[in-house]
Input
Amino acid sequence: MRILITGGAGFIGSHLAEAYLENGNEVYIIDNLSTGSLDNLAHLKERSAYQKRLFVHVDSILNRDVMLELVGTCDIVHHLAAAVGVEFILDHPMESITTNIQGTEVVLELCNKFKKRVLIASTSEVYGKHTHAPLVETDNIIYGPSSKFRWSYAASKLMDEFMALAYYRTTGLKVCIVRLFNTVGPRQTGAYGMVIPRLVGQALRNEPLTVYGDGNQTRTFTYVKDVVGAFVRLVENEDAFGQVLNIGGIEEISILALARRIIAACDSSSEIQFIPYDKAFGKDFEDMQRRVPGIDKIQNLIGFTPETSLDVILSKVTNYLRKRTDTV
Ligand SMILES: NC(=O)c1ccc[n+]([C@@H]2O[C@H](COP(=O)([O-])OP(=O)(O)OC[C@H]3O[C@@H](n4cnc5c(N)ncnc54)[C@H](O)[C@@H]3O)[C@@H](O)[C@H]2O)c1
Output
């Protein structure tokens, strides 16, 4: 089969490309390299068995002509291209909204035109400022005011969900929406604020681990290979279309406890340094205190269970970053 992955030179996209190539498929990628990198695909390009089945287009999903050609060529589309990461969104507010809304419009319109199956990557940020757990797909959504720009990411992804569901309802487009909770693993960069590669990089350099706020905010973490395995199964499952599904881990941990665990895992002499949110992100920032997914829906649909423990994830990320000199 021919698979199109938008954002395929990014962290998750590169793992998804690998999974499809391993299974003998042709993989087409479109990525403008804004947060992704061709380095993420170098190990795939080097393998002679993959060279004739991997096609990389460095371009934007906003280029409709290129997208027309690619969507028309492929059987399945995974739409991962987006402006991602709190720091990136705050630094590039306009570009982020355009990419996330107009870009998804192009993808959905063309998938509908050619009747292609499509998976849309949404985010747990969509839930907003809840503190209860677990978060389930039918929960209400609570955002801060529009002056607090971090909510533009959540709101733009929520519009993507509405657009996708509108296509499903009006034209029968085979579209599945996944809300990803923190997904982690090798090749994720800490450059745009992603917490595990950022803290592991600091620990490996024996620098202070910078924890924002009091560190009591909690998250769960899912290993990227568990996540891409679910993507592959979802687009093959007729019952997944028209659905919104959480994908996330089950082990809730505070960022402070995570930092301590990383220091131990890296055998680092680093200390922990608390940074107030307004120093890290400006005075308009507010964080989500707790983010834990309910995963019954996806478990019932495809039997998804996050198989990789946090300790294993940390050792994989640590080994990966140790091998790189430019740990971030
Ligand atoms: N990693 C996570 O924890 C997480 C959590 C929730 C949602 N997601 C979603 O998963 C998807 C993939 O995220 P990721 O973690 O791999 O991040 P990433 O930044 O590594 O991947 C996004 C990719 O999209 C590309 N891109 C951005 N704008 C583009 C454009 N206009 N045209 C073409 N390519 C463009 C980037 O260069 C990058 O390679 C995103 O949609 C993101 O919102 C990720």
